[in-house]
Amino acid sequence: MQPTFLPWLGYFALIDQADRFVFLDDVQFSKQSWQSRNRIKGPNGEVMLSLSVARKPSKPLIMEAKLAENGFEAKLMKSVQACLGKAPHYPLVAEILTEGFAQIPLGLSAVNRSIIAAIAKATGIETPMVLASESGMPGGEKSDRLLAFCETFGASSYLSPVGSYGYLSAQNPFAQSTVTLGFQNFAHPVYPQFFGPFQSHLAAIDALAHVGPEGFLPLVRSGIHPPHSIEDIARMSQ
User: Fold this and answer.
1) Is 0.90 surpassed by the pTM of this model?
2) Residues of the chain scoring pLDDT < 70
């Protein structure tokens, strides 16, 4: 998975289910994507939290993307505090974000990975995480490269986010491989929130602030179900 900014609970479900999690940091950075922004819930609806990405280089890989050192993180922290400051575990969220933003001079990927790793450590997710850029794997077609990662790490199966179905159904090298392909089957759990009816698919810090480090992993695991096959996804897409 790409190292996204403040990912949702399903992202941590993928990490928890894996024996090894690979950050795809050597692929193209996409503006206005989850790589640099995410959302939490505020008193008037969704609040978008965005990293300030530097203009140069103009078309970087994720690992090359730089962040503007213009103090944007102070405004972002104020937004988080305004939305989650009264939640019982907000101090932990603030600590994780502060540590993450200390990586701003190192770029987008470093900030995102710091936050993801800190949430995992605080909540008991122990899956080893590695960087695609340090794996020695060459580029190539997305689907072929996924299989190559699995073979390099000796994996017997690959768990994919549902969003990858499009290109994996068009070109599925796993069909001729001993590595089985499954798609994440995650039912978003409900947890206490401020500001009206429950809203799903927010940044995971929303849940962490409310349920805390001890409640986070049980919450994530309550949404995990046996993976879908590619045929299952095809039927659901009809």
Assistant:
1) yes
2) 139
